[in-house]
Design a protein that fits this description.
The complex is a heterodimer of chains A (116) and B (116).
Chain A: E1 5-7, E2 10-13, E3 19-24, E4 31-37, E5 43-50, E6 65-69, E7 75-79, E8 88-95, E9 106-107, E10 111-115
Parallel strand pairs in A: 2-10
Antiparallel strand pairs in A: 1-3, 3-7, 4-5, 4-8, 6-7, 8-9, 8-10
Chain B: E1 4-5, E2 10-14, E3 19-21, E4 24-25, E5 33-39, E6 46-52, E7 60-61, E8 64-69, E9 74-79, E10 88-95, E11 104-106, E12 110-115
Parallel strand pairs in B: 2-12
Antiparallel strand pairs in B: 1-4, 3-9, 5-6, 5-10, 7-8, 8-9, 10-11, 10-12
Classes of the chains: A mainly beta (116), B mainly beta (116).
Amino acid sequence: GAGVSQSPSNKVTEKGKDVELRCDPISGHTALYWYRQRLGQGLEFLIYFQGNSAPDKSGLPSDRFSAERTGESVSTLTIQRTQQEDSAVYLCASSLSAGASYNEQFFGPGTRLTVL
Amino acid sequence: AQKITQTQPGMFVQEKEAVTLDCTYDTSDPSYGLFWYKQPSSGEMIFLIYQGSYDQQNATEGRYSLNFQKARKSANLVISASQLGDSAMYFCAMREAPGSNYKLTFGKGTLLTVNP
C-alpha cells in the first residue's frame, strides 16, 4: 500500500494568513503524529492522535496551531495568522498503534512552509 | 535538560570505511525505545534501526548496528562499509514510557558526508 502522503509539498504564504496542511496516514494506522522541523534542526513534536481518544496537544507552540483528525483517517494541521517563525517543514507520521513498546513511525515527505 | 544529545554536528568518512555516530540520552523511565533515522537531502525520514531498553543484544540491520550501552545511556549508530549514498543527516530519537504518548524526541542530528 501507499505510504504516508502530505499535501501540499510546498506552501508559500504571507504573514498573517491562515494555512492548512493535510496528512493521509497509512491505511490501518491508528496513531498519527505531527512534527515540525526548523532549518538545520531536529524534529519537534506538535500533536498526537490515537484512534478516537482525545489528542495530545502538548507540543503545539501556540493557540494559533490546531489540528483535527476524523477517526483513523486524514488529519489537517491549521496555522492561523502565520508568522515568519512558523517557516519550517511540517512532517506527519503514522504507526500501527501506540500501545506496543516498538512501533515504527512512518513519515510522510513533509510540507515545506515559507512565511514571507 | 536535553533528552537526546548528538554531539557531532558533522562527520566525514571515506567510502568503504566504518563510522560511528554518537547519541546519548536521558530518561528515568525503565521502559524506552531508541531509534535512528536517516534524512537525505530530499527530506524524507527513513527508519534505520531500533533498540528496546530491555533488549539483551545490540540491534543490527544489514550494515547498521547499534552500540547500546545502557549504563552509560548511549546508543551509538555504527555504519560499516560506508557508501556514497549514506551521505545524509542522521537523527537519534527516543520513545519513553506509555504515559508519554509515544512521541519521539529527536536529537539535533549529525550530518554525515561520505567521501569517495
